[in-house]
Design goal:
The chain is mainly alpha-helical. 71% of the residues lie in helices and 0% in strands.
């Protein structure tokens, strides 16, 4: 494992340090984006650019893709597929739901593509699939249109299984149309089954590697995504998103140093290309970097990330305040600084998701501090935000903050001395989270919070089981490892206590002595002659 990790770290280092040199020697119009072949009937002189535009699409560099396709449209006005490319650049299938203005733009591009007419049946099929998403946007929900697009792409794929681009876009469409919940992770498994042969046939295909990482980005499947994760940055080092995406799998598997290397590379690359959406990519990388530092006991580095965000002149003031508030929330909760968490302020203009997350954090903090009235008030705030999110069902899914509401209610009940009610709520939250496919990639597992609660209730044996369940879903999390070790120690399970304390120390190798939990782990191991 160490050899493979070392190789992966070298790949990421190379992407960061060698790619700039390569770009200095290579014309700017040929960035390293992987190998894509998407033949079109447009003017021969635009074929190379078209392939490059599709490659940008596959790495979710939508701004750059749109520039390429608009350039093709100017160079070759009759090229219907350039309009298809513009429409595809406007829809970010796994990131957001397009607003009304964007949907109008997309429909205009699709309509223009239809008017120009694809010159081959294949081109007409791709255009028709895009039209299936943008058509009737006022009548159909986002989910219905995503499903319509996926059905259309399935037809394109089935007509020509040798068309690797059809397979790649069909695989992505399955993820974009994933229902919530999706029992058995059926959509992800189906997408992976479509994408794996593409990756095998073309190991340099950026879409295959990228979309496989997304397909496997759940605890149950994460290990299957390790190969794609360790290849994607090498395939498309010109894309900041490609440098970041491997971290999704690294975080799922608790490979903190690989996650850190991935996001350092992505942040540096993103800040060099702010004009192509680099600010968003940089912040996303910093978010993952902050989380990985905290899980590996590197609080000073995590704090440095917060300082960097606080002074980031490449973000507007509202985005900067919102992102900083989110990082401060995580730092306070992960380090159990309940007073800091209690004092978290909601920045002006905060979106509903951030508002809800801060209510949730303050509820947990007030409950842990025994401030039951304040905790109840924050819980009511969370419920109010949840109702607003539920009213926008199409955008936020059928049950926004459903798990968090149960967690918060459980801890409020605990603060009020209702231990059985608290345990029921927390067990329900853990079960619901598992049903949904596991915790958010950067989230605190419900099983970990259940373990904390059971430990507080004086049930170390049951707490140990909860922590172990959390570690199966989120390996090597700092608090779950410490909680499992402490619970085992209190339950008299010395072998398990030693194992989890040692795992925590190993996970935080090279970290400072800042965290009291880490000092306790080292003290315990020293006391039994294992320092």
């Amino acid at each position: 494992m160490q050899t493979r990790q070392g190789f992966a770290l070298w790949v990421l280092w190379a992407a960061l340090t060698l790619a700039p040199a390569a770009r200095a020697q290579t014309p700017p119009q040929t960035p390293r984006l992987g190998k894509v072949s998407f033949p079109v009937s447009c003017a021969p002189g635009v074929q190379e650019a078209f392939d490059r535009g599709v490659a940008w699409l596959h790495s979710f560099e939508f701004e750059e893709a749109e520039k390429v396709f608009r350039g093709i449209s100017r160079q070759d006005p009759p090229c219907a597929m350039a309009e298809w490319g513009i429409a595809m650049s406007l829809w970010h299938p796994l990131w957001e739901h397009p607003d009304a203005a964007t949907l109008r733009q997309g429909w205009e591009a699709v309509s223009q593509a239809e008017a120009l007419g694809g010159k081959t049946p294949r081109e007409r099929d791709y255009i028709a699939a895009a039209a299936a998403f943008y058509r009737d946007s006022a009548k159909l929900s986002h989910q219905e249109r995503a499903e319509a697009y996926s059905r259309a792409m399935q037809q394109v794929y089935e007509r020509d299984p040798q068309d690797l681009e059809a397979a790649a876009f069909y695989g992505l469409s399955l993820l974009a149309a994933e229902p919530s919940p999706d029992p058995g992770l059926a959509s992800r498994r189906k997408a992976a089954a479509v994408l794996e042969p593409v990756f095998a046939q073309n190991p340099e295909h950026p879409g295959a590697a990228h979309y496989l990482i997304h397909a496997y980005d759940v605890p149950e499947l994460a290990a299957q995504g390790l190969k794609a994760a360790r290849e994607y940055a090498r395939i498309a080092p010109a894309s900041p998103h490609a440098l970041h995406m491997p971290a999704h799998i690294f975080v799922r598997l608790g490979l903190w140093q690989e996650a850190i290397a991935s996001n350092l590379a992505s942040e540096t690359a993103a800040l060099k290309v702010l004009e192509m959406g680099g600010a968003g990519h940089a912040m996303h990388a910093l978010d993952f970097l902050h989380y990985a530092y905290l899980q590996s006991g590197q609080e000073d580095q995590a704090h440095a990330v917060m300082e960097k965000v606080a002074h980031a002149d490449w973000m507007n003031s509202q985005d900067r305040a919102a992102n900083l508030a989110d990082l401060e929330k995580r730092y306070a909760l992960e380090t159990h600084d309940w007073k800091q968490a209690e004092a978290l302020e909601t920045p002006a203009g905060a979106g509903l998701r951030l508002q809800g997350a801060l209510h949730w954090a303050r509820t947990l903090a007030d409950a842990r501090l025994g401030k039951t009235a304040a905790a109840r008030k924050e819980l009511q705030g969370l419920e109010a935000v949840r109702l607003k999110l539920a009213a926008a069902h199409d955008r936020y899914g059928p049950d926004p903050f459903g798990v968090e509401l149960q967690e918060a209610a459980g801890w409020v009940a605990q603060a009020e001395g209702k231990e059985q009610e608290a345990a029921r709520a927390m067990r329900a939250a853990a079960k619901e989270e598992e049903t949904r496919g596991g915790p958010n990639v950067l989230g605190i597992p419900a099983g970990e919070l259940l373990g904390d609660l059971l430990l507080e209730q004086g049930q170390p044996g049951e707490a140990l089981a909860a922590y172990e369940s959390a570690l199966k879903q989120s390996p090597n999390r700092f608090d779950s490892l410490y909680g499992a070790a402490r619970a085992a120690e209190l339950a008299g399970q010395k072998q398990e206590a030693r194992r989890y304390y040692q795992q925590l120390v190993n996970t935080c190798a090279g970290a400072s002595e800042g965290r009291p939990e880490l000092r306790q782990a080292r003290a315990y191991l020293k006391s039994i002659g294992m320092d």
